[in-house]
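Chapter review: from sequence to fold.
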Amino acid sequence: MAKFLGHSLGKMIILNLSRGDLLLETIEEELENIKIKDAIITSAIGSLQKVVLHRVRGFSSQPEDEWITLEKPMELASLQGIVIDGQPHFHMVVSDTEQTYTGHLEHGTTVLYLAEITLMEIIGLDLKRVKDANNIAVLKGK
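The token string follows.
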């Protein structure tokens, strides 16, 4: 286990995405525009017309991922994760009228009607993600 401490919270950003906006790409652009390196996502709701995610599929020491693309009306029930060194790592829960899906948010996920995302900056972290021997991106101090 590793533990890292920030010392305060900074800017809060609220994004109101509209039909056709790309979810992850818009978040990445706004974080860069506002110069936020480290943050937590505090809230995310909305509707999606295209969902791109991946999820784990095995127990081997190196990740085995399944990539899924869904193109149908979906509810964004949850988006959780952190931003480290400007790079979001978010997992989501989405559902249609029959099934629920979970996994790692990927580029190409597109808003149907709207999405409201809130992020809070963390001050005092100096971290990066580094791939370990098993190809897992772990947090390390710079």
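Two observations follow directly from the output. The chain is about 10% helix and 60% strand. The beta strands are 8-18, 39-56, 65-70, 74-84, 87-95, 100-105, 110-123, 127-131, 137-141.
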